[in-house]
Amino acid sequence: MKTKKRLTVSLSSIAIGCSGVSFTHAQGIGNAVDLYAGVSGAVEYTDNVFLNSNEDSDTIFYLSPFVGIARDKGLVSLDGTAGVNFQKYVDFDDNDSANLFANLSGAYAGKPLSASGSIGYTQETQASGAVGTILETGNFNVNGSLKYYISDISGVSASAGYATSVSDTSGFGDTETFTVGGGGFYDYSEALSFDLGVRYRRTEVSDVNQAANDSDDIALIGGVTGDLTPTLVGNLQAGVQQRSFDNANEDDQVRPFFGAGLTWTIDSLTSVSLTGKYDYTTTVSNLSQESLILTGTLNHSFTNQLSGNVGLSFEDDNFVSTVPGQEDRDDTQWEVFGGASYQLTDWGTVGVQLSYADRDSNEDFFTYDVFSATLSASASF
After folding, report:
1. The dihedral of CA 333, 338, 339, 340: what is its sign?
2. How much is the pTM?
3. Nearest-CA neighbor of 333 among 319, 320, 316?
4. Looking at the predicted structure, is the pLDDT value of residue 316 above 50?
5. Which residues, other chains included, contact 263 with Cβ-Cβ below 8 Å and sequence gap of 6+?
């Protein structure tokens, strides 16, 4: 069992009763790299802060100073940020926190060889519907990929990644994930590409008080990326995947794989974004999670200053435990959301975002609904 060890701070002196504000200033260096710094903030009200059937409400203030670096010229691009995210809970102040984050990504857009990579560390304090409480975690990830053209229009690709999530919340464990993949691709045109590959993923769980839910996944995935039609742009992936468990009490699972990120441009003012995935994960509560998530968002610009969004999402989760005889948990959630932002001046923007979700589960603790409202404002110079 873990004891809570994350540094917590009181933000009463800075969590003032405003919606939040951010300031950003960029400085060019040698016409190649931009350095910038800023601070962002927000306030959120939720009537179910822990995402469980107790439905406790709270108000949360956020304040996040940061620095960054960016380059997007020539063949090499670079993007990185680092900072700290302060969170202040008005009622459940045991969850007050100061969370560090640092992320760096880069790419080389050469031909025949191109490459990309990223590395990041993020501390998080946030509620999870998968476990029904607020979790404090430290998350590290590193990923890399290579793409090599054998001919003018086709080639091979390879990727590898590592991710770990370390829980600082008592009663929860840690997860590690190792991923490798490879395959081939074919450029149908400058705007459309097809690919086919294999992905292997190893997931291990540690620091839990029951048999670890370790597993191996293998998936065969095909996809298409680019301009699918003159008005539909994005990527689609589909395939089949198998998850095999180390624990002899669990049966292997064979499921479809699905991933999508699409934007449909209706006209110059209106677009629809569609995202989805069907994949496996493993929670810090030692449960194997099989999830289908679908989201659609309508975006519209009413004027040059005023824009809005409204959307709907659906999520279906199946959770499998290593405890013999324990029934699988099945959750289904529907969510509606909407918001608006208004550009006051060339440097200032205000916004509001509302959401309502209804979650149903075969376990009463995970059956609930939740409403949240977030006010925000930003300024950049």
Report:
1. positive
2. 0.87
3. 316
4. yes
5. 232, 233, 234, 271, 272, 273, 274
Strand partners, 233: 227, 263
What pairs with residue 27 in β-bridges? 35
Give the containing element (helix H, strand E) for 52: none
pLDDT band at 1 (very low <50, low <70, confident <90, very high): very low
pLDDT at 308 over 80: yes
Query: Residue 245: what are its φ and ψ, rounded to 5°?
Result: -100, 145
Task: Give the pLDDT confidence score for residue 380 in this predicted structure.
Answer: 67
Whole-angstrom Cα Rg for the chain: 22
Determine phi and psi for 136, rounding to 5 degrees. -110, 120
Nearest residue to 236 (alpha-carbon basis) of 264, 217, 216? 264
SS3 assignment, position 94: helix
Amino acid at the residue 51: L
Strand ranges, E, within the chain: 23-29, 33-46, 58-73, 76-89, 97-108, 113-128, 133-149, 154-167, 174-189, 192-206, 215-227, 232-245, 253-265, 270-282, 288-301, 306-320, 329-343, 348-361, 368-379
Range with the poorest average pLDDT among 27-31, 73-77, 130-134, 247-251:
27-31
Residues 6+ apart with CB under 8 A from 151: none
Reply yes or no on whether the pLDDT at 21 is more than 90. Answer: no
- How far apart are the C-alpha atoms of 70 and 81, rounded to whole Å? 9
Query: 19: pLDDT confidence band, cut at 50, 70 and 90?
Result: very low
CA neighbor of 204 nearest in space, from 233, 174, 230: 174
Q: Which residues 6+ apart lie within 8 Å of 90 measured at CB?
A: 58, 59, 60, 61
Structure tokens at 101: 């984050």
At CA 171, angle to CA 165 and CA 176, rounded to 5? 20
Whether the predicted pLDDT of 18 surpasses 60: no
Pairing of strands 154-167, 33-46: unpaired
Question: Which whole-number Å values give the CA distances from 226 to 195, 237, 258, 266, in the listed order?
Answer: 12, 12, 17, 17
pLDDT number for residue 323:
77
Q: What is the dihedral of CA 83, 89, 95, 100, to 10 degrees?
A: 0
Give CA separation, 148 vs 155, 158, 190, in Å.
Answer: 5, 9, 16
